[in-house]
Amino acid sequence: MKVSIIGGGGRVGSNAAYALQCGNIVRQITLVDANHELAQGEALDLLHGASIAGDQIITAGDIKAAADADIVCITAGSRRKPDESRLDLINRNVSLFKDILNNLAAAGLKRSAIIFVVSNPVDILTRLAVVHLNWPANQVIGLGTVLDTARFRSLIADAKKLPPSQVKALILGEHGDTMVPIWSSATVAGVPLSSFVTPHEQNELFKRTQGSGAEVIKRKGGAGYAVGLSIAEVIHAIALDQRKILPVSSQMDGQYGLKKVCLSIPTVVGRGGVIQAHEVELWPKEKAGLVASGKALEETWNKLK
Hints:
Layout (H helix, E strand, L loop, with lengths): L1 E5 L4 H13 L4 E5 L3 H13 L1 H4 L3 E5 L9 E4 L15 H18 L6 E4 L4 H12 L6 E3 L3 H15 L6 E6 L7 E9 L2 E2 L6 H12 L1 H9 L4 H15 L4 E3 L2 E5 L5 E6 L2 E4 L2 E5 L6 H21 L1
Helix pairs in contact: 1-2, 1-9, 4-5, 6-7, 6-9
């Protein structure tokens, strides 16, 4: 499997490439960036560790190098400022994203390729990729709330001194201001998390999760490691056809009464991309939050058009 990372010279793209290298599952990693020399430097640095990490082919190239990719991971875009929402990025990132899509189409991207959107606002850009490229909706995936879910689980574990890998809790909806914490199904080692986390603590942990992106940007300029691991988790699910259930962003087809809008619900991810997006039972307030998240994204999409 070949993965091309558009924006591979940046913090998110290069961290994703490193996570993929450490995972040693995909065969080829190609970094594409407007700053070609930076992409070459990152690829060379990764290549220097190839004898330790694995035997992958690691290169840098222009957009044409993505034409034969099995997965095109798009991380390019302007960074979010600490005091702005992800949706505020839309005015600055949509034009750039369309240029990338046009260049991919001109390069002759193969029709079986999975388009994996990481750039923000990810839910809007995921939908834009489906519409602008006229690509099969199941072959367009956004990172969605995979990173938010990872942060949520890790922060819960840290606060309650629990093993992070045993904490299972979801963030659904928009990757942004209207994200929804799902406490109804949250567990640790199969035990309901309500046994460990009080309602007050639940609110505080969700607030911390919701503001985590801005906190990292403020402290170090941008997220890298956790988002790189989150990207690798999705790509590995595709590469290995794991049929793994992940909260990726994909186009809704009637789930929770939502159509066309892209957001995150529990989704089976495999070699074909989105295998099935599940409408799972939620508490009434969680379902209402998810529907409100969809409506907010639809309103933004209509402004975009």
